[in-house]
Task: structure prediction
Amino acid sequence: MNIAIVGTGYVGLVSGTCFAEMGVNVTCIDIDQQKIEKLQQGQVPIYEPGLDEMVLRNQREGRLHFSTDLTSCLDNVEIVFSAVGTPPDEDGSADLKYVLDVARTIGRSMNRYVLLVTKSTVPVGTARKVKAVIEEEQAKRGVHIPFDVASNPEFLKEGAAIKDFMSPDRVVVGVESEKAKELMTRLYRPFLLNNFRVIFTDIPSAEMIKYAANSMLATRISFMNDIANLCELVGADVNMVRKGIGSDTRIGSKFLYAGCGYGGSCFPKDVKALIKTAEQNGYEMRVLKAVEEVNEHQKSILFRKLNAYYGGMLKDKTIGIWGLAFKAETDDMREATSLITIRLLLEAGCKIRVFDPVAMDECHRRIGDAVEYAADMYDATLNADALLVITEWKQFRLPNWNVVHKLMNHPFVIDGRNIYDANEMKHFGFEYTCIGR
Result:
């Protein structure tokens, strides 16, 4: 089976590589010539565990190809996936420019039936716009070539994307014709050996499922952060509360971890987009507005704890930071808590030393030399008046606290991910605070 995937960002590159791994002949397309040339040379532009090796293997075995020309592929593929970016506009709505550009190219160039599948996260109603654009371009050519549109939202977790794609909880496919359903069934048939579910829906429902799923997860995170902040005030322990409510089978334990706010490419953008979609349809998403408000407030909690500890006297204090990425196992810093924390520390006149296992280059790309980049996690604590732990990388879980204590100017740790045990930290001679205890 031959398919094309337009967009070699996170979703497109992971999806294309995983399809190739299952025997599909895949051409990944991007308008960025430099990116395509690097991919053709085996240079993967994103950090995702296991992806480099899989890309190289499928290139070598002739199933994975890279190109800048969608038009030249259309006569040889049955399915085109659109996995281009949908960045938020200033009002929070999703920018569909690139999605509609793909549809426009297909309408102008197609000579035979093709199924265009939207894999990007797009608002409900996007498929109708895509279909209208293709029909409009065909009308300009004076042709009427059959085609279908479909929706196949992705549910990939950064850091575990390959596992999520190869062994997913479910695959959601929105279709409006039997032919489209048959093609998508044939494409996903190799994955059925793992006994996961393919859920076929109408297209608007598939588009909504993605936003609703991410918004629900974001809601659980903000809810627990709100509970954690109240726990601190009343003397409760949020970890005990989490275990107590998570053992209820109606609730479950996932995404109930308190911390210093969510970030990344999906949750913030999708919550905003769903709020905007509701506004455009005359409805107010009051719960999601509160979710967003809680999260924005939570991103400053480490700074607020530090500022309170030092009584507002932070000027010229040296602050060490462990973790820059919005979560472990990625170099993604989009909407990361670290960026908010760093901005607030700089405004307060602090000197900052940072370390992250993979996101140092990304941090430098974003903020340049505004902070000092440490050689390793211990170097980040040198002469520090406090250590802020922002990302829960595994290598931060069991550090040599004796070394850290000797390096720091003042042994104060603020744990933004509740990784450490308070009694153990006291034993090593640290003043310690976390979230919700």
Remarks:
- The mean pLDDT is 95.
- The longest helix spans residues 203-234.
- The domain at 2-201 is CATH 3.40.50.720 (Rossmann fold).
